[in-house]
Specification:
The chain is globular and about 50 Å long. It is about 15% helix and about 55% strand. The chain has one helix and twelve strands; from the N terminus they run αββββββββββββ. By secondary structure, it is mainly beta. The longest helix is centred in the N-terminal third of the chain and has 22 residues.
C-alpha cells in the first residue's frame, strides 16, 4: 500500500513539473543575420503560461548554440547578444521593460573596437494582449541584419549599421 501511495505521489509530482515546463514557450521576435559570415540566429522572447515574459533567448541555427537571459538582465547591464574577446559588440538593454506589456529597448552596438565608439538604435517590444512583437520607428521588425564596419589592415572592427526588415 505504501509503495502505491509513494508511486502515485511521485507520478503526481513529475506530472506537475512537466505540466509547468510544457506551458512555457518561446515567441520568435526576429531573425538575426549579418553581411560578414553565415550567422543565422533567432531572437526569442521566453514567456510563461500567462504570456508574461521571463527572459530572452538567442539561438544560432548554424551551430545550434543558444544563449539565454532572464528578463531582469535587460536592466542590469543588458543581454549581450554578441561578444568578441573583451568587447561587448551587441547589447540589448531596457530600463522600463514590464513582463506583461513590454517596453522600450536600446540596441547598443560597438561601432569601432579600436576607438571604443558605440552607437545605438531604439526599439520597442510590445504585447497587445495576443501577440508579442518588436518595432523600430513604428514598423514591425521580423529581421535584424547587421552590416559590419571594416577598416583597412584591421578587418572587421564593429557594426556599421543595422537594417530592420
Amino acid at each position: 500500500m505504501k509503495t502505491m501511495i509513494r508511486g502515485a505521489l511521485m507520478a503526481g509530482i513529475l506530472w506537475g513539473a512537466m505540466a509547468g515546463t510544457a506551458l512555457a514557450k518561446d515567441i520568435l521576435l526576429a531573425s538575426v543575420t549579418n553581411d560578414n559570415d553565415a550567422y543565422n540566429g533567432r531572437l526569442y522572447l521566453v514567456v510563461d503560461e500567462e504570456d508574461k515574459a521571463t527572459g530572452l533567448k538567442l539561438h544560432d541555427l548554424s551551430d545550434g548554440k543558444t544563449d539565454k537571459w532572464q528578463a531582469s538582465a535587460l536592466a542590469n547591464g543588458g543581454a549581450v547578444l554578441k561578444k568578441e574577446g573583451k568587447h561587448k559588440v551587441i547589447v540589448l538593454k531596457s530600463n522600463d521593460f514590464e513582463i506583461d506589456r513590454g517596453g522600450h529597448f536600446k540596441l547598443d552596438m560597438l561601432y569601432n573596437g579600436a576607438t571604443g565608439k558605440r552607437q545605438s538604435v531604439e526599439l520597442k517590444v510590445d504585447f497587445d494582449g495576443t501577440d508579442w512583437k518588436i518595432f523600430s520607428r513604428g514598423k514591425t521588425v521580423k529581421r535584424m541584419h547587421f552590416i559590419v564596419k571594416k577598416v583597412a589592415f584591421l578587418g572587421v572592427v564593429g557594426i556599421k549599421s543595422v537594417q530592420f526588415k
